[in-house]
Amino acid sequence: MMLTHATPVETAAEAETAVLLIRRTGARATPARVRVLQLLRSAPAALTHHQIEQALGDLAIDRVTLYRVLDWLVESGIAHRTTDAQRTFRYSLAAVGEHAAHTHFRCENCGRVFCLDAAPPVPPSLPEGFCLSRIELDLCGRCAECAGERR
Prior knowledge:
Layout: H1 8-23, H2 31-42, H3 49-56, H4 63-75, E1 79-83, E2 89-93, E3 103-107, E4 113-116, E5 138-141, H5 144-149
Parallel strand pairs: 3-5
Antiparallel strand pairs: 1-2, 3-4
Helix pairs in contact: 1-2, 2-4
Pfam family, one: FUR
GO molecular function, one term: DNA-binding transcription factor activity
InterPro entries: FUR (IPR002481), WH-like_DNA-bd_sf (IPR036388), WH_DNA-bd_sf (IPR036390)
């Protein structure tokens, strides 16, 4: 997957947006977090760790730091981590306002995630003492574009 490069003005504005998103969580906006978040914001589909490393190019950060940044983005609700058909983690940007309020469709072919205008089901009754933190409902298949390729 090839990502295009933005102009310096676009890059500065995108960096500022990334900084604000990170700071809203109460965390520090480190250069690594900002770079990875900028990349996820511009990606047309969910990216693997390797694709992120490759896309960062000259701005690359070490592998362990990248894993930590991705884990933090997911734990903070800024990004989503999904597993594709090959059991590879893919990372994508979460919409502002959190994704828990609706259902997703994940394309098993291209890895893109689509937000559907459908509420998740009502959660089942939980045993006493259990505390629900979120509901995730993913529908999987092929998006219209990928399904059209196979016709």
